[in-house]
């Protein structure tokens, strides 16, 4: 009678809790979505930065021409004259997702533009990511931790920086895919269900479609599997979680054109295959162990080991030989720079020149994950109490992502979910312990006043207490691996605590608990809860501030607050609009590669290089042209059929990320391919400067001239507000270029190549061209221009 | 000095028009004012017509050289009799003579009241012409002013005998050069030729005025206006413009330093802002182009109307092009009325909301609510009309769209002509979509409930976990 009453009340409580958690999750989704709308409210609904413009353009193409044309799309607007096969070189996940969303809305006659869908894709998927985090953390440490982690992830600044409305980049959907894949892996590991294993491969497929970061998954999961095997946690569930993922996942990954045979041919994937072999060997060993007597098993082990080592040695030798035979040792440049942080800056200036490929600084950790940095260690401790397959995975995920984020600031994004999960666990555990002890004290106070038996109190707390405490006490008794497994089963069935498989196992626990109730003093727990709430409040404040102030700027529109109000710098779009409307459709525009995507998307003009830095030589050609004197630059550009040259100049208004500040990279990248460009020629005593002290080469290169042409006439002195000094060469004329457009704040300047002087028509022209090329060769610069 | 039209042509014309000319109308006096202040040429002619024939006359013929007739945007004729204004607008029905040699276009005007013999009546003809001002030189640098040439007939082109006439050019500023005639006067910026006495029909003598005009030469090569009617009480107007600076082309590139250092001197021929006059009570105004919002604009509103001052992304120089779109919402009750027959009458103003702009091709798409029937359009001028369907906001059968297309639209179209669209609409359709949404959400919940209660498992102990546990 009494038990049924308790059961009834508890089921009601569970139902209420279920509804409440659904409601909380819904609110978390709303928070995740709306905190990312600061950019739309403060600025406008517009695509941000550089790469999103390319994705937007691809989505436009997809929505206009359909999926089949998309796969076959050869884009002749970029990398002129090479072009680019977009369908085969792009991760299609994001584009297909937004395209599908757009199509769905349009089929329901909801008039949404492609741009609107693209702008809001990232916030929508942030909500999904928060829910996926809930699921993952729930598998690791229970519902409470799940909800806490989801709430933390919904507003972690690191993730916000990549997923505000308008930042339509691969990471926007990839983080969701990453977390969801991990969730399904853990789910499969916990249930051993083949259904989840299949879903896991599909989620992995979506991740492969979305982001190059999928290699993180395909290396982390094998690492975890290996860890489980090494620590003696092998089970058939582990096998089901891993083997289908490798087989199905690799097959599916190979379907994505951009990955293709890389899924089996590059070293990033070799780890997974190795572990695949190992898990099979281990499975075989476990099977044989089951059917053989211990003595026979020993004999078999020695036999297999000797043969196995020999075979392994051969295989490893072959692998090493294969890997060593490829020039980059089978690793792509970006992945190599992960393993060896100095690799990129040593060998690939084009990778090193991207700011997001630099290692992060300590303040950026605090900026991006804030208080989570302090909560993470607590979370790790909580994960070890007790260590299950799932929690060991969480720890492993955190540790590896910490390492990777230390290598490349961009991968801070991968760290964020791990940090959120850990902090969620830590906070939830802390709250659990504190509130339980508060409850214990309060109930004791009431019970004492009602003079009831303390024995009953112990029982009631044991039924009411949630799993972690029980686990904590139980962990003392877990010595044999078998017990660990049973304990896992028990943890999965938290809801039915009373139906624990072995009553005998529970009894000592409750007995123990009565002796050592693991409670803190009431005052201490109240203060601690208060402090934790303050900590959470600080975190929320920081996140809102970061979302509103730090990460919402679309970077194509700049604003500044001055005494007479808000000032808007809309120069980029001014220039792109001018190019779009006042140049011929087939004109080629040369600029540094940063502005390639924007030029093709916003101005709809053909560019020479863009942000997809796949051809180093081509970029080096543009870099060489920019660092050459006017005449040589004109020849390079003319041979590339360029009609307009676009430079970004911040000297008038103090916009620091302009081409003069990026110029050293142009020199380095150009010099890497064309050795006549030497970095030393542009540096005065090892210092980069454009004032009167600057070198002759620097003051005569095209970039300097195009940036500062007639700049001195603005204030009479030529004071550069970014560099904070007067420029070196003030009065000069352009001989081979003419200014055709400069934006309102001079941030973008567009020049046109002057037509060749005294052009001779007909036969004589050919001979002239011929003589020119030979003369340039005789000048000793044979490697000057690859397009001649 | 005077050169007549080829004699044969005059004869042809006379033969063709014999029926009307036979009536022996004589124009006793004409005063023609040509306003050259903007790139739209506005010509007002005050005519006094005398009937000297034996019959009453009900028709008067206006004649224009083809060069003008081709660019004639609109014409307004006011008929005055004995000082009494009989205001009337005449639709332009061009009756072109079938003769190929003729370079004249004739517009017969049916008089509202017959002109009795011996009587005199006044006729004010207001003509708006476009594309007649030619830049000379065709290319100028940023620092130069824009010079335009206007060519016209010094005599009033008419199939009637004219006793006394004069022509006045009103100019915006400096005059570079002009045709010399004995009877001429230049007072400030007004150039007057005449009076000329007793000229036979189709007298012709060219007059050329070369003058400075730096007013904004905005030509919308393409203008699409979409007016979406919602019977919930809102009209959403979207206007898409492609605007070209139709004046002298810019040569030698654009220099920002010159433009900024002395804006009045440099770039005089360019324009940076356009002003749109939106109807009163306009709200939710936006101004953007295909790459996002254009942040440089000012909105001022009063009871007379709302003024949107748009600064373009870049200053427009000769030959430059830009495109953008503006949109705004209006209360429905200002535009929709109910006719006696139970029809809804939609009253729309044709033409661009931007001031002083020539629209080469305008398309107006009026999106009526879903379920509208019996649609008819009434307008005072000829437009190409067609109908199509548009699907938006959860439509099922689609909204009927009335498409009106017209070339060469000037601000006068907006001022003087209204377009009326009649249609029938049952207000019960308004609830349709709300019901649809309610039903949809209801079905969603129903499916959820059914799914939660249905047991789709094949066996009760399907879980592999439980089976293995059971074995233990």
Automatic annotation (TrEMBL), chain A:
Domain of life: Eukaryota
Region feature (Disordered): 456-500, 758-788
Residue ranges occupied by any Oligosaccharyl transferase STT3 N-terminal domain in the UniProt entry: 19-422
Comp. bias (Basic residues): 758-769
UniProt GO MF annotations: dolichyl-diphosphooligosaccharide-protein glycotransferase activity; metal ion binding
Involved pathway(s): Protein modification; protein glycosylation
Keyword Manganese on entry: yes
Compartments (UniProt record): Endoplasmic reticulum membrane
Cofactor requirements of the protein: Mn(2+); Mg(2+)
Keywords: Endoplasmic reticulum, Glycoprotein, Glycosyltransferase, Magnesium, Manganese, Membrane, Metal-binding, Transferase, Transmembrane, Transmembrane helix
Biased composition (Basic and acidic residues): 476-487
Principal cellular location given in the protein's record: endoplasmic reticulum
Description of how the protein assembles with itself and partners: Component of the oligosaccharyltransferase (OST) complex.
PANTHER family noted in UniProt: DOLICHYL-DIPHOSPHOOLIGOSACCHARIDE--PROTEIN GLYCOSYLTRANSFERASE SUBUNIT, DOLICHYL-DIPHOSPHOOLIGOSACCHARIDE--PROTEIN GLYCOSYLTRANSFERASE SUBUNIT STT3A
Protein name according to UniProt: dolichyl-diphosphooligosaccharide--protein glycotransferase
Naturally occurring in which organism (per UniProt): Rhynchospora pubera
UniProtKB/TrEMBL annotation, chain B:
A cellular-component GO term for this protein: oligosaccharyltransferase complex
Signal peptide as annotated in the record: 1-23
GO annotation (BP), single: protein N-linked glycosylation via asparagine
UniProt pathway: Protein modification; protein glycosylation
Pfam families listed in its UniProt record: Ribophorin_I
Cellular localization per UniProt: Endoplasmic reticulum membrane
Membrane topology, record value: Single-pass type I membrane protein
Keyword ATP-binding: no
Transmembrane segments: 428-452
Primary role: Subunit of the oligosaccharyl transferase (OST) complex that catalyzes the initial transfer of a defined glycan (Glc(3)Man(9)GlcNAc(2) in eukaryotes) from the lipid carrier dolichol-pyrophosphate to an asparagine residue within an Asn-X-Ser/Thr consensus motif in nascent polypeptide chains, the first step in protein N-glycosylation. N-glycosylation occurs cotranslationally and the complex associates with the Sec61 complex at the channel-forming translocon complex that mediates protein translocation across the endoplasmic reticulum (ER). All subunits are required for a maximal enzyme activity.
UniProt family annotation: Belongs to the OST1 family.
Assembly mode: Component of the oligosaccharyltransferase (OST) complex.
Protein name according to UniProt: Dolichyl-diphosphooligosaccharide--protein glycosyltransferase subunit 1
């Amino acid at each position: 009678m009494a038990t049924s009453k308790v059961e009834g009340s508890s089921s009601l409580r569970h139902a209420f809790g279920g509804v409440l958690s659904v409601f909380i999750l819904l609110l978390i989704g709303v928070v995740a979505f709306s905190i990312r709308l600061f950019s739309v409210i403060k600025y406008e609904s517009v695509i941000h930065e550089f790469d999103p413009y390319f994705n937007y353009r691809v989505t436009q193409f997809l929505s206009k021409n359909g999926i089949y044309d998309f796969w076959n799309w050869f884009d002749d607007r970029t990398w002129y004259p090479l072009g680019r096969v977009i369908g085969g070189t792009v991760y299609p996940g994001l584009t297909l997702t937004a395209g599908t969303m757009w199509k769905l809305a349009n089929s329901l006659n909801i008039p949404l533009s492609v741009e609107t869908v693209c702008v809001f894709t990232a916030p929508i998927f942030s909500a999904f990511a928060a829910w996926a985090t809930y699921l993952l953390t729930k598998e690791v440490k229970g519902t409470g931790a799940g909800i806490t982690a989801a709430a933390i992830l919904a507003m972690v600044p690191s993730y916000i920086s990549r997923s505000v409305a308008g930042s339509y980049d691969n990471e926007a959907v990839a983080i969701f895919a990453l977390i969801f894949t991990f969730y399904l892996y853990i789910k499969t590991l916990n249930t051993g269900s083949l259904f989840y294993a299949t879903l896991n491969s599909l989620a992995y497929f979506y991740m492969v479609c979305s982001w190059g970061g999928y290699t993180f998954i395909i290396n982390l999961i094998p690492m975890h599997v290996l860890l489980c095997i090494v620590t003696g946690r092998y089970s058939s569930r582990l096998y089901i979680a891993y083997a289908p993922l490798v087989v199905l996942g690799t097959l599916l990954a190979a379907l994505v054109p951009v990955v293709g045979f890389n899924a089996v041919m590059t070293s990033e994937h070799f780890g997974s295959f190795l572990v695949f072999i190992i898990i099979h060997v281990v499975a075989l060993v476990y099977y044989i162990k089951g059917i053989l007597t211990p003595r026979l098993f020993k004999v078999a082990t020695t036999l297999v080991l000797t043969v196995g080592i020999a075979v392994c040695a051969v295989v490893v030798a072959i692998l090493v030989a294969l890997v060593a035979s490829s020039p980059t040792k089978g690793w792509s440049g970006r992945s190599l720079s992960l393993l060896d942080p100095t690799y990129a800056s040593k060998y690939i200036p084009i990778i090193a020149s991207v700011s997001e490929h630099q290692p992060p600084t300590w303040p950026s950790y605090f900026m991006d994950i804030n208080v989570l940095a302090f909560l993470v260690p607590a979370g790790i401790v909580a994960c070890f109490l007790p260590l299950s397959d799932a929690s060991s995975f969480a720890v492993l995920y955190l540790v590896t992502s910490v390492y990777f984020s230390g290598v490349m600031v961009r991968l801070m994004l991968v760290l964020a979910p791990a940090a959120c999960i850990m902090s969620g666990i830590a906070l939830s555990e802390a709250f659990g312990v504190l509130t339980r002890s508060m409850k214990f004290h309060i109930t004791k106070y009431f019970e004492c006043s009602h003079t009831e038996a303390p024995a009953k109190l112990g029982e009631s707390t044991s039924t009411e207490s949630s799993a972690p405490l029980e686990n904590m006490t139980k962990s003392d008794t877990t010595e044999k691996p078998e017990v660990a497994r049973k304990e896992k089963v028990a943890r999965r069935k938290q809801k039915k605590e009373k139906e624990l498989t072995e009553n005998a196992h529970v009894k000592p626990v409750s007995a123990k608990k009565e002796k050592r109730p693991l409670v803190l003093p009431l005052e201490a727990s109240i203060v601690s809860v208060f402090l934790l709430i303050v900590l959470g409040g600080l975190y929320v404040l920081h996140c809102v501030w970061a979302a509103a102030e730090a990460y919402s700027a679309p970077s194509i529109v700049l604003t500044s607050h001055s005494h007479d109000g808000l000032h808007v710098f809309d120069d980029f779009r001014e220039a792109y609009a001018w190019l779009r409307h006042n140049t011929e459709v087939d004109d080629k525009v040369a600029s540094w590669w940063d502005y390639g995507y924007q030029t093709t998307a916003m101005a709809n003009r053909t560019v020479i290089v863009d942000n997809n830095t796949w051809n180093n030589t081509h970029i080096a050609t543009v870099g060489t042209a920019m660092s050459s004197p006017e005449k040589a630059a004109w020849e390079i550009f003319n041979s590339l059929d360029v009609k307009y040259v676009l430079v970004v100049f911040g000297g008038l208004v103090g916009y620091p990320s302009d081409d003069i500040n990026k110029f050293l990279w142009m020199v380095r990248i150009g010099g890497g391919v064309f050795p006549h460009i030497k970095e030393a020629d542009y540096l005065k005593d090892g210092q980069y400067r454009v004032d009167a002290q600057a070198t002759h080469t620097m003051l005569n290169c095209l970039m300097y001239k195009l940036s500062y042409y007639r700049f001195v006439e603005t204030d009479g002195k030529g004071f550069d507000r970014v560099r904070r000094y007067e420029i070196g060469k003030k009065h000069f004329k352009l001989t081979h270029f003419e200014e055709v457009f400069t934006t309102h704040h001079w941030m973008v300047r567009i020049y046109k190549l002057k037509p060749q002087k005294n052009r001779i028509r007909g036969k004589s022209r050919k001979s002239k061209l011929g003589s020119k090329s030979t003369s340039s060769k005789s000048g000793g610069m044979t490697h000057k221009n690859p397009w001649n | 000095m005077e050169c007549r039209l080829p004699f044969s042509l005059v004869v042809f014309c006379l033969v063709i028009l014999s029926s009307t000319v036979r009536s022996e109308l004589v124009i006793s006096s004409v005063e023609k004012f040509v306003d050259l202040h903007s790139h739209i040429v506005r010509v007002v002619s005050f005519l006094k017509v005398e009937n000297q024939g034996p019959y009453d006359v009900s028709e008067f013929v206006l004649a224009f050289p083809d060069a003008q007739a081709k660019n004639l945007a609109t014409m307004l004729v006011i008929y005055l009799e004995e000082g009494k204004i009989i205001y009337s607008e005449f639709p332009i029905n061009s009756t072109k003579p079938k003769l190929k040699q003729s370079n004249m276009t004739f517009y017969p005007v049916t008089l509202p009241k017959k002109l009795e013999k011996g009587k005199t009546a006044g006729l004010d003809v207001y003509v708006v012409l476009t594309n007649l001002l030619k830049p000379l030189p065709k290319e100028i640098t940023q620092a130069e002013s824009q010079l335009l040439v206007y060519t016209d007939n010094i005599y009033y082109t008419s199939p009637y005998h004219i006793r006394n006439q004069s022509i006045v050019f009103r100019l915006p500023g400096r005059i570079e050069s002009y045709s010399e005639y004995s009877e001429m006067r230049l007072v400030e910026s007004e150039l007057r030729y005449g009076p000329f006495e007793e000229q036979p029909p189709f007298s012709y003598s060219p007059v050329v005025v070369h003058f400075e005009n730096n007013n904004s030469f905005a030509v919308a090569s393409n203008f699409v206006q979409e007016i979406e009617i919602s019977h919930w009480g809102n009209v959403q107007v979207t206007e898409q413009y492609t605007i070209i600076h139709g004046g002298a082309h810019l040569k030698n590139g654009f220099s920002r330093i010159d433009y900024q250092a002395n804006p009045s001197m440099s770039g005089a021929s360019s324009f940076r802002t356009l002003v749109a006059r939106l109807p009163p009570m306009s709200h939710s105004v936006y101004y953007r182009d295909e790459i996002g919002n254009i942040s440089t604009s000012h909105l001022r509103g009063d009871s007379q109307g709302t003024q949107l001052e748009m600064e373009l992304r870049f200053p427009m120089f000769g030959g430059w092009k830009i495109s953008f779109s503006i949109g705004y919402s209006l209360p429905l009750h200002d535009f929709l009325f109910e006719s006696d027959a139970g029809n809804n009458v939609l009253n729309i103003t044709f033409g661009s909301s931007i001031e002083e702009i020539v629209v080469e091709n305008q398309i107006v798409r009026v999106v009526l609510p879903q379920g509208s029937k019996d649609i008819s359009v009434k307008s005072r001028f000829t437009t190409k009309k067609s109908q199509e369907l548009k699907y938006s906001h959860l439509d099922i059968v689609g909204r009927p769209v009335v498409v009106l297309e017209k070339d060469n639209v000037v601000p006068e179209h907006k001022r003087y002509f209204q377009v009326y669209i009649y249609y029938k609409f049952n207000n019960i359709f308004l609830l349709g979509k709300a019901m649809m949404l309610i039903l949809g959400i209801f079905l969603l919940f129903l499916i959820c409930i059914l799914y939660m209660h249905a047991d789709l498992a094949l066996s009760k102990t399907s879980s592999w976990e439980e089976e293995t546990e059971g074995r233990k």
